Amino acid sequence: MRKVTFPHMGTSVFIFSDLIRDLGNEPIVPLQPNKKILDLGVRYAPEFACLPFKVLLGSYLEAMERGAEVVVTSGGNGPCRAGHYGEVAQKILDSNGYKIEILVFDSVFRNPFQFIRKLNYLNKAKLSYWSIAQLIRFYWRKLQALDKLERCTHKVRPRALNKGITTKVFKQGIEWIQQSRNLGEIEEAEQQGLLALKNIPQDPDRMIIRIGIVGEIYVLLEPAVNHEIEEILGNLGAEVDRSIYLSGWAHDNTFGHKKDSLHYARPYLGTAIGGHAQEGIGHTIMYAQNGFDGVIQLAPFTCIPEIVVKTIAPRITKDYGIPILTFFLDEQTGRAGMQTRLEAFTDMLKRKKRQPLKVVGGEKYARVFGN
Amino acid sequence: MEKTKIGIPRAFFYYIYYPAWRTYFESLGCEVITSPPTTKEIIDLGVENALAEACVPVKIFFGHVQKIKDKVDYLFIPRVMSMNGKTSYCPKFLGLPDMIRSAIPNLSRLIDITIDLRKDPLTFHKAAVKVAKDLGHTAWEGLRAFHKAAHIHKDYMALLHKGVFPNNAIQGFFSENAGKTEFAYNDFIENKGSKQTPLRLAVLGYPYTVYDSFVNVNLLEKLKGMEVEVVTMEMMDPQILKKQRNKTVKRIFWTFSEMASRTAYHFFENSKDIDGIVHVTAFGCGPDFIVDKLMEIEAKNKHSRVPFMSLAVDEHTGEVGMMTRIEAFCEMVRRKKEAVI
After folding, report:
1. Number of domains composing chain A
2. Which among B222, B109, B232 is positioned nearest to B163, based on CA atoms?
3. How far apart, in whole angstroms, are the C-alpha atoms of residue A97 and residue A5?
4. Nearest chain A CA: its distance from B307 CA (Å)
5. A77 contacts chain B (CB < 8 A)
6. How far is A358 from chain B (nearest CA, A)?
7. Closest-approach residue (CA) in chain A for B82
């Protein structure tokens, strides 16, 4: 059986590995990015490569040690450089004498024939296209259920009486979703998971601040890379809302769709510049309008779209009075340093919430941290 | 009536489009003001306002804008998305007017017209008409000015392809006795008396780092002093570069990066034409890590006859350290060449 691996992205790992197994391959499940993976990636990746590239390269190398032969990853069409990552990783691995094939799936519309050829190559079980579509629908539903649970944990964690319990219940919920065998069971697992989370004893009187998280998709979705920022914030008494989920569905249901965020972003950034720059700006403004207390921007070091966003951020703070804290993450970022900055940020937001600042000279006082 | 003053910062697109832009505005009856060549003061001004994480060309651009913003009525910072209808530019170019507007206080008015040939084949004409109308001229005048500018641009590009450096070409275009002087071709005069073997190096990199002699600490001058003939990617015939289009699976997304990598591939294939390749890159440059790695792997595995070096510059680059590396590289290449001869 062909051994296939794929990038590790948050909690979604088991979904992709099941999909790959159903297509008739042996999945080599990627490990959660750790020190060893990062070291491997840093050794072979160029210095200015962004953290996601280093992590991915490292995890491919680690999976190769366990026998992986093929990597399945997604592509892109610029101007963000992630679209070139498959090719560059392939060349780096080739030139270092590793034998692995990186299969990049670009958008179907870019080159449909190539897409189908790659799909056929991966489809060892010779499933019909209809059953592949069914499979994708099934796993998509799982992804949605997973994202829904994760959203719920963000609400429960800051209010929970017992600090570690939310994560435990969430892990149980993930297991239920993983074990479900058909769409009905997923529905049931989802409901059960949500119920279990809501039944966690909570303190309704606690003062909760609300923080939105925007930024680059990979560092946003991979807790191992962003040092579990959502958990840290939750334990500091902040309700977190993440602007991007893998299924993209949960968020659209609360605030409105992607095009709304682009609408708000346009006066600040007139065009799509790659990555999630425009969405980041739009979501920041939407958070401000929905009464959030602060926004945190997560970005990999040398990510140019996020640099553009950060340059524009002070103007949003001035116009909407929302504090923005930016983290540029790289392989040197330490958890303790991040924790300190987050504590200071949440402290400031809490103080601000307790005593609403007086309006002086017609303009709200606000500061941008992270400069 | 006093002329409207248009400011064009001496950074980024200056090295490629300045003659065209200046001609356009001058035929609309405006006065064009350019910032002086980059100095320490300009970098410091830029570092104050730009983000620490941004690459040094962005900081320099911010500095140039700071330098001229109070002297002009309008700043011309277009949003250049695609000039060839296929590839775009680095994200920082696409968000440039937005970054400037957010980061620099008390800005004079910006002309931030969008130019995107991928979406609209008439984008140049439309932009020319719109800017002319905004400045109080008729559409017809705008088109005429555009026509003139396009001519100048063609002449300018022809000069670059012949081997004139942009700074010399711009000087030749707009000096007192324009049209009469001979351009200094390539600045390279073979010194018959010297005993050194002449070298021909390709200096690849984006025009705003290769031709800004402050940021690359006088690299081109120094190479000239070491009797090295320099070839840059602007000197390459586009038709020659086009032959290298199948070297990457996906077309490289960014215009300048694509030019750099194609030039490198061209010289790797025709290694007799060149003695070595130097890649000049700015610290933290996003696209360059891909371009540089592709070149490096190509040079290492398939074309080991072509020596390759990459030089990273930033606002702290010291002259001596740079000099040592260049000297060592040239020495090595020269020794290799002499041994072969």
Report:
1. 3
2. B232
3. 19
4. 17
5. yes
6. 25
7. A79
For residue A153, tell me if it sits in a domain: yes
Determine how β-strand B74-76 pairs with β-strand B5-8.
parallel
Is A340 found in the same domain as A286?
A: yes
Residue A361 pLDDT > 60: no
Predicted confidence (pLDDT) at residue B216 exceeds the cutoff of 70: yes
Q: Which band of pLDDT confidence, cut at 50, 70 and 90, is reported for residue A346? A: very high
Cβ-defined contact of A269 to B114 (cutoff 8 Å): no
Letter for the amino acid at B25? Answer: F
Closest partner residue to B290 (CB to CB) among A84, A269, A271 is: A84
Nearest CA of chain B to the CA of A193: how many Å? 42
Instruction: Give the structural domain span for A148.
Output: 143-203
Q: Are residues A94 and A241 in the same domain?
A: no
Flag if B289 and A46 touch (Cβ within 8 Å): yes
**Residue closest to A12 by CA, chosen among A297, A299, A194, A245:** A245
User: Of all residues in chain B, what percent carry a pLDDT higher than 70?
Assistant: 94
Min Cα distance A76 → chain B (Å) is: 10
Residue A50 CA to residue A89 CA, distance in Å, equals: 13
Position A266 confidence tier, pLDDT thresholds 50, 70, 90: confident
**Does residue A182 sit in the same domain as residue A233?**
no
Exposure b/e, A243-256, CB count within 10 A at least 16 = b: bbbbbeebbeeebe
Residue carrying the six token digits 């958890």: A335
Residue B257 has pLDDT above 70, yes or no: yes
Residues B153 and B208 in one domain: no
Are B297 and B332 in a shared domain? yes
**Which chain A residue's Cα is nearest to B54?**
A307
What is the domain-level CATH number for residue B336?
Answer: 3.40.50.11900
Answer yes or no: do B286 and A315 touch at CB < 8 A: no
Q: Is residue A134 part of a domain?
A: no
pLDDT at A330: 84
Q: What is the mean pLDDT of residues A261-283?
A: 84
| B126 and B275 share one domain | no
Residues A123 and A182 in one domain: no
Name the residue in chain A with its Cα closest to that of B102. Answer: A312
Residue A36 belongs to some domain of the structure: yes
For chains A and B, what is the number of CB pairs under 8 angstroms?
Answer: 120
Same domain? For B217 and B133 the reply is no
Closest residue of B to A78, CA-based?
Answer: B253
Instruction: Kindly state the tokens that stand for A58.
Output: 């490292």
Residue with tokens 């001869």: B341
Answer yes or no: is pLDDT of B156 > 50: yes
Residue A365 pLDDT more than 50? no
Percent of chain B with pLDDT over 90: 5
DSSP tag of B29: T
Is residue A138 in a domain? no
Q: From the candidates A47, A51, A81, A90, which should be mutated to test the interface with B, based on the most B CB atoms within 10 A?
A: A81
